[in-house]
């Protein structure tokens, strides 16, 4: 569904934000939970496996963890849903305790977009209860829509989550900006037809399609974001 922006005058119709690693730096919390799971079952946790899981749907990530154990000859006695629940409980406990930080410039940009009247949505593979915990720290109307991983049939890298967010807002996805930090998430955004602005966190993101890569959001305001996204979308 890749195409040109349909309304350059009113671009963007909305900015759709990824959560983990883009808006807040929760990746270390996920790494800790995933590593604890692997090691509690006698497996070996590695940086390579950690990076492979970044941006994945939680069920996909849980299956990769189980496959990693099986590759070591370990037969885990848990199901995918059990792994997902264990990971979420661990990370959510840390989030509730405030054990996370906002990515540099992300919160400021988000609130700057809100002040400009630019609509925003939150699109993540994390589950709703975690997203709403952090969203509660922001002004009530910051996100008009939240699309969590537990409410989509196909997660990232499929385009469905971003398409669902655009549909919920009643806007054309090609008039939207997607904010991402991982190759998996950027692939989802590009496949949806949005203009993607990627700010890599722990793994590199190669530009391609309607996407552009920024080193940081620190010092980036709404105007700079829109200019970057126009470059990604090839629209004047």
Automatic annotation (TrEMBL):
CDD domains: HAD_BPGM-like (cd07505). InterPro entries: HAD-like_sf, HAD-SF_hydro_IA, HAD_sf, PGP-like_dom2. GO terms for molecular function: hydrolase activity. Keywords: Hydrolase. It holds the Pfam family Hydrolase. This is HAD superfamily hydrolase (TIGR01509 family). It comes from Propioniferax innocua.
